[in-house]
Write a structure and sequence with these properties.
By secondary structure, the protein is mostly helical. The protein contains twelve helices and no strands.
């Protein structure tokens, strides 16, 4: 998860810079095609193409179709609203992920885990401070992307039960390259040297962040992994302040504190019976 967090913060900056010159469709196609070359060393180390064989291709296609749409919306919002808002609104996602994981994967949510998620979401709300009538297009797209990412997270967790992380990453790149080929060609323009540099960085971060995330899902429940991702909010807010002079105020600091508290609560080991556990249905 530390690898995921670092790479996702970097990709937010690289994606915004690349989108100054290139269409989001083109960025996403280059991200996937370059990513396949970058992933190959891991595929080869795992045993070559035999390591990425799967009996669940329809689930991979479904997961990556949903993820492609959510990711497109995410890249678009990078150009419309501040980085901290993009990531903060994205973090309505964990509540959907937790509910879906309980409903479809049979995972259990203790009172402590629910409280950790709640603290994180309150922290996000404090940072964004939404007001009635001020939800703009960028924020609406971010909310839709969050729901798409939640569905993707649950599908990834399901896939980790049978497929290795390298296989999940491989099929992500293959399926999303196929989905994005025609839209990207329709708006294609040759990138400048600077744009190429940003796109290569997007591809590297996008490829290995998802490998890290899939590995994390193999080691822990989605209800543990997803709340850890709350740390991306304060980290992205800090980068937005350093790189783009985006506002970082006392409300942001308070929100960061709540998010960190939620993560700490979720990661600490508690004596059995200290928090109520909701029984499986």
């Amino acid at each position: 998860m530390a690898g995921w967090l670092t790479l996702m913060v970097v990709i937010a900056v690289a994606g915004r810079e690349a989108a100054r010159e290139l269409s989001v469709f083109q960025i996403m196609l280059l991200r996937s095609t370059l990513g396949m070359a970058m992933l190959w060393p891991l595929v080869r180390a795992a045993g070559g193409l035999a390591a990425v064989r799967t009996e669940r291709l329809p689930q991979h296609v479904l997961r990556n179709t949903v993820h492609y749409g959510a990711q497109y919306g995410w890249f678009v919002t990078l150009t419309l609203i501040p980085l901290a808002q993009v990531v903060s609104i994205e973090f309505t996602m964990p509540i959907w992920s937790a509910v879906l994981a309980v409903a479809f994967l049979g995972e259990r949510m203790s009172g402590r885990k629910w409280f950790a998620v709640l603290l994180g979401l309150v922290g996000v709300a404090v940072i964004v401070r939404p007001r009635a009538g001020e939800l703009d297009v960028g924020q609406l797209i971010a909310l839709a992307s969050a729901l798409g990412f939640a569905v993707s997270v649950v599908l990834v967790k399901s896939l980790t039960r049978t497929d290795a992380a390298v296989a999940i990453s491989f099929w992500m790149l293959v399926v999303q390259s196929a989905i994005g080929l025609v839209p990207a060609l329709l708006v294609w323009q040759w990138p400048s040297t600077t744009a190429w540099a940003w796109v290569v960085l997007v591809a590297f971060c996008g490829t290995y962040s998802h490998y890290c995330f899939a590995r994390a899902m193999q080691h822990a429940d989605a209800t543990v992994v997803v709340p850890m991702d709350f740390l991306r909010v304060p980290l992205t807010a800090l980068v937005g302040w350093l790189a783009y002079s985006e506002r970082l105020d006392l409300f942001t600091a308070l929100g960061v504190g709540l998010i960190l508290a939620g993560n700490l609560l979720n990661l600490l080991r508690w004596p059995a019976g200290a928090w109520p556990v909701r029984p499986k249905a």
